[in-house]
Design brief:
Blueprint lengths: L9 E8 L4 E8 L5 E3 L7 H16 L7
Antiparallel strand pairs: 1-2, 2-3
Amino acid sequence: MTHTDAYDDWHTGVEFDRETRTWRGFIKHNEMDKMHLTDASFDDKGEAAVAASDLLSAAREGKLNTA
């Protein structure tokens, strides 16, 4: 597995969208305003948390699509 240090200072989280009543996962830099959201929204908070973890793993493996 390839690893990049670029995302070592990032953490995962979830946020609730009151309008759609769904959860989205995200990864965010610990000291800056940089943030990436998961593509999908989820009815279940736990599923959003797993998606955020998967997103951070992909980022750390150099597979994050930021386009």
